[in-house]
Amino acid sequence: MAKRVGMEVAIAAAEAVGMCDIDVAAVYPITPQSHIAEHLSEIVADGRTDAEFVTVESEHSAISCVAGASGTGARVYTATSSQGLMLMHEILPIVSAMRLPVVMGIANRAVSGPLNILNDHSDIMPQRDNGWIAMFTENGQETVDLTIQSFKIAEHPDVMLPCCVNIDGFQLTHMVEPIEFPDQKLVNKFLPPRKPYATLHPDKPVSMGTFAMSDIFPEVMKAKDEALKNSKKIILGIWDEWEKMFGRRYRPVETYCADDADVILLTMGSMGETAEIGINELRKKGISAGLVKLRLWRPFPFEELKQAVKKAKILVVTDRAVSFGGPGGPVASEVRAALYGEKERPLIYNQIIGLGGRDMAVSDFVAMVEDAVKSGEKGIIKDYEFYGVRG
Amino acid sequence: MNIIENFDLYAPRLVDKKEYLCSGHRACQGCGEVLGLRLMCKALGPDVVIANATGCMEIISSMYPSTAWEVPWIHVAFENAAAVGSGVEAGLKALRRKGKIADRDVKVVGVAGDGGTMDIGLQALSGAMERGHDMLFVCLDNEAYMNTGIQRSSGTPMGASTTTSPAGKVSSGQKTWKKNVPEIMVAHGVSYVATACPSYPLDFINKVKKAMKVKGPSYIHCFTVCPTGWRSPSEMTIKLGRLVVETGIFPLYEVEDGKYRMTVEVDQLRPIEDYMKPQGRYRHLTPDQIEIIQDRVYQEYNKLQDKINGLHAWSDLQYEWGLFD
Fold first, then answer.
1. Which of A90, A210, A214, A217 to mutate to test the interface with B (most CBs of B within 10 A)?
2. CB-based contacts of A345: which residues, under 8 Å, 6+ apart?
3. In Å, how far is B271's CA from the nearest CA of chain A?
4. By the CB < 8 Å criterion, does A329 face chain B?
């Protein structure tokens, strides 16, 4: 077994990118960036990775630059968060429609206003419908593994879609964690050079990003949807391959004590580990509680989710973002839609938690579950709540 | 007949007969912009990748599933042609260095209209030029947002009526002077900056060829007549392109390493009415207003002459790109 090292997760994410033989990276230090970009520039400056590191003048240009580079057949990477991701927004659906396998690390942070910079998921949620593969990491090890896997997933000839790795800002990106780096030779075997479908080169001229009116535009949208849905089986296959080579298993939905649980808590991102301890405490108190963690956000793992919660009576879905004036949080909205057609489905309580970096302790997860159990027993239905928020 | 025979004799030596932007595209009759693009492609030849901003030239040339482009071409969005071009350049550079593509020069060329260059694309352009990418950027300036319906841009000249700077009972059209983007590019230390117009095809082609040879960023600001947006007769496109130069409104010059040179000399500037009269966009202007514009034209022309007479070329060493690569 490889040696485990203590490393800040953002630095580890950059180290993971450094193992992937990228050709071009473009980044911009919008408030707030993470150490991913800085450290990646050090890796390139030291010659550990032979890549062009383009210090663009905005996040909009960062995503545009890697799109152009990806068009040449290069393996590309960018990293951003919060306002930067919002500035990229316009280009994100174009990248997926052009089927460019861009990989992006996102240190998830709150979106202004007010200006906040701390962790939640309000930056990624507005990007939900842009046709990108979106995964969430729970810890440093997952961050490294998913980052390396992302290139293989995105560049797979049956996928050819951009992929973002969501890493909770501060709560995860700035933590020092024990991480086992895979062997470079094995990574080279796992991730061979990109084989692009078409490239921008005079030897075989192509036109990329052409104009499409109503006679073809809907077909392009349908093709993108199908490509994203079909990517799930490729992702599963790549995760199997990873498990065989590196011993760590990844699934779209992870469970903890959930098989026999009456009440299930659902998290996405780094709060899963805190929630696990909460589940232990609840079990000690005699409450049949379990945890379900969503790793894959897009394509959404409908079947896996249904399986994971099918025996539960109560499901507490946590959200780190708000769909204002709507159904509460976007994760709960998706979970409700996934379970609507089931004959037997749990009561769903949606808790919006940890906005703008508000800390969530083990006791908070315990309290949320206990509250849901009490409400369930009394038959009280609540659409959603802002957990522990004044006013 | 003799003229055509002579053309066949001499023109192929001066102008590539091969078309890299094919016929069958959807540009308007008399479009000066597509003519500029076509001539630019002839001067560039096959070893290029073009990054095109959203705009007239993008939509008329790439209606899916057809394309007018015989050279590699990419369009992503409106404001980012220079950023996309930066990425293409970086990609080709890295892939070539790593032996993943053929070891030969391929020039990246960014193309955008006046809106995509001077307004919404100026930040991306400034970034790309400052970073010193090996890229030529060509602005095809038809002085308004024609693709979206003739709205004013910072390239629209004083007094021109557009759909967002309309001439009305209390308004005389555009209220601002045209932004001088070539000068902004010179201020970036770009070693080759030029103005051009397809009505002077050989001048334009020579400039594109010069820019091709620059290792680093270069910029050409190409003035292109738009009969649709200017309400001018489509058969007058070439004539108007000559008149804008002959009146001194848009002088043709180049700036090599900071040294200014007029490439098309005009002995005696014609009055600007000669140029403005055939255009509907100027029809509302009073003689007094035309005089104000005329004075400004003379002033700008003199300022340019001063630069031509007074400024020396930068030393090679200080302004070379990629010294720390």
1. A210
2. A339
3. 42
4. no
Structure tokens at A318: 């946590």
Find the DSSP H helices in chain A: 9-18, 35-45, 59-71, 82-88, 92-97, 140-155, 184-190, 217-246, 271-284, 302-309, 330-339, 362-378
Distance CA A347, CA A336 (A): 10
**Type of residue found at B17:** K
Residue B22 with chain A: CB contacts under 8 Å: none
Tell me the shortest Cα–Cα distance from B212 to chain A, in angstroms: 15
How are the residues of chain A apportioned to helix, strand and coil, as percentages rounded to the nearest 5?
40, 20, 40
Q: Identify the closest residue of chain A to B133 by CA–CA distance.
A: A54
Give me the residues paired with residue B33 across strands.
none
Q: Does A249 touch chain B (CB under 8 A)?
A: no
Q: Give Cα B112 to chain centroid, integer Å.
A: 8
Rg, chain B, Cα only: 20
* Distance set, CA B180 to CA A58, A148, A306, B136, B215 (Å): 23, 47, 61, 18, 24
- B69-128 tens-digit pLDDT: 999 999 999 999 999 999 999 999 999 999 999 999 999 999 999 999 999 999 999 999
Q: What is the dihedral of CA B226, B229, B234, B238, to 10 degrees?
A: -30
CB B220 within 8 A of CB B245: no
User: Among candidates A271, A262, A267, which has minimal Cα distance to A372?
Assistant: A262
Identify the structural domains of chain A with CATH numbers, from first to last.
4-246 (3.40.50.970), 253-386 (3.40.50.920)
Q: From start to end of B126-277, where are the E strands?
A: 135-141, 192-196, 218-223, 253-256, 259-262
Q: Residue A204 contacts by C-beta under 8 Å, 6 or more apart in sequence?
A: A198
Cβ–Cβ gap A74/B90 under 8 Å = yes
Q: What is the pLDDT of residue A1?
A: 56
For B39, phi then psi, to 5°, come to: -65, -40
- The ipTM assigned to this model is 0.97
Chain B residues with CB under 8 Å of A97 CB are: none
Q: Does domain B13-316 have CATH number 3.30.70.100?
A: no
Contact (CB<8Å) B100/A203: no
pLDDT tens digits, residue range A116-175? 999 999 999 999 999 999 999 999 999 999 999 999 999 999 999 999 999 999 999 999
